[in-house]
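Subject: for your reference before the review

Hello V.,

The reviewers asked for a structural picture of the protein, and I figured it would be easier to keep everything in one thread rather than splitting it across files. Below is the amino acid sequence we used in the manuscript, unchanged from the supplementary table.
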Amino acid sequence: MLTPLHQYSLGDAANADAVLTALSDQFLIRSEAETALSRIYHDSFDWRLYLSGSVLYSKKDGRKKVLVWVPDGSEDAAETLTVSQGVPKFFWDMPQGPLRGKLAQLIEMRALLPQVEVKGRVRQFKVLDGEEKTVLRFSIESYASRMPGVGEFRELDQRIVLLPVRGYNSISKRVSRILTKQMGLRPLAEGLLQAALTAIDRKPADYSSKLDFQFAPEDSAGSVARRIHLHLLDTMERNLPGTCANLDSEFLHDLRVAVRRARSALTQIKGVFNQEAVNAYNPRLSWIGQITGPSRDMDVYLLDYDLYRSSLPERFQADLDPLKEFLLAHRKSAYRSMTTQLKSKEFRSFLDEWRGFLNNSPVRHEGASAAELPVKMVADKRIYRIYKRVLGEGAEINDSSPATAFHELRKSCKKLRYLIEFFQSLYTNEQIQPLIKALKVL
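And here is what came back from the structure prediction:
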């Protein structure tokens, strides 16, 4: 039975030949199969599969394609799904089965996107003892990668992969010592996916909508505010192509969240910009919220449609289907209108002007009384003020309060949460995380 593998960087083909010679001097080596490999790795835009410790790739099998999901880095535990109509975009496009259910839990509403294309050649060998029993298997692997279907392939360092056989770990250790001590090879911690991405100047998990700022209490509030806004602007721009291409609903969702956070930062972190700047940029951020709102509304209705349908008695469920067609038609129209606006000169001009403003910190902060104050002082004051507002609004609500009162309280709680998230590095996790978690459920 095989046990987990070990891998080492070979560099070029000359090193591979030298390693084979060195191992052949001390062991009986027998060459086995040589196979060509071609695959495309898929993941969501925010790398949900990778962050779960799994990978998903597609490979050709005649005229069909096979999806291979490796849940824990071990091909022995891989699950496969043969598809005849290309790689499914969403989990709900897959046939019912175990793999669909497992991927549904991981990627939810996100699309599976091609991340990197890999081709390679794998030469397999086995080490035999005096009785010609297999005591170790290993392979010498050569790969190249590129953006899926785009450009030239870039070569990766060759690697030798050891796959020890249970009961013969001493052989694996001897070979490992030869590779590292005698041959000077470097152990590889990264798998093929990471190496393939590195070769095309990418890295996994290069996008997250979560805020993870690291501020020092003595940092100036003005510089911190600019860093916050630049990060949020980057998030908006990262999600624009996927929003306009209608790849999945979360591109628009993340774009809108970044806009809401930016508006909150602009209006709630007071005194870091002059009022003229706030008055100039806040309405334009609000405009983005307005032009993207109808599309998001349709997305929300459609994402929850199956839940609405299943909540009805079975004999009435089909009666709801015309509503779905209505929502799909309105979504198509809303996205068309929104995309026109997001590709307009007005929108591009705003993004450029906003970035220019954020990148040009003035020497003197006229009209921005808090810009040079320590950020911890400003954060404490602003968080406490919004906290008091939340308490006041909550205290006024009773059984007869209108829905608008609850809505205003919810908006205030969201502003409080955004402020806490912006400045969470200034406080201990024990203080902050329970508060953020509680505010998220309101």
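For the response letter, the relevant points are probably these. The CA atoms of residues 26 and 102 lie 46 Å apart. The first helix runs from residue 13 to 26.

Happy to draft the paragraph if you're swamped.

O.
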